[in-house]
Amino acid sequence: MIRKLYEILLFRKVKSGLIPKHIAIIMDGNRRFASRKGLPPYFGHFFGSKKVEEVVKWCWELGVKMLTLYAFSTENFRRSEEEKRNLFSLMEKEFKRVLNDKKIYEEKVRVKVVGRVDMLPESLQKLIRDAEERTKDHDNYFLNVAIAYGGRQELVDAARKILKKVKEGKISPEKIDEKVVEENLYSDGYYSRVDIVIRTGGEQRLSNFLPWQSANSFVYFCDIYWPSFRKIDFLRAIRSWQQRLNIYKA
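^ that's the sequence the OP posted. Answer follows.
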């Protein structure tokens, strides 16, 4: 009862302040959560996927327009075949849910995957394309999922795309600026600046996540494992960002 009351009061306080436009989350601690409970890694990822549904709704409640989630890095391909198979199967289920979730259409949420999608199983690629196609005209909320993503690789791939355009005469070297770089990232200019990066699980590093987009972002590290991430933790992260902005203004 006391925690719920605190959550309500904290929500009101955060809601009354400046709301971030773009929050990015490194969803860490799924496997450790499962291990602590004596369960296989799959269950950590399963409960983690359910937490995503909650966090998306929290964003809607507050009016956070854009959410980017780090779901699977290029380094994660080194994991066991069984774990990858289970993860990709879970992702397929989640994209099928998105395709049939009335809320996604009612709230006009645009869904986009950023990363080397071509490295994923064909069945998952198709679901990703379907989700992006069906929501491409939505413009109220934006949900980005980083899958097969690596920040350095994104910058390398952007450089290659720009060089190709220069070679084809579509752009001159003198015209290359920050805007051109952003237009050639995986997002195709769809987003750039991140206000807050949240990392759960206790690690205090960014793990090659959105290096261009988060260059000047506020970073909030949280010890709790992702499946146990609470609304209070989410609100505290935003409150800390708001307090930091007030310090700079002073």
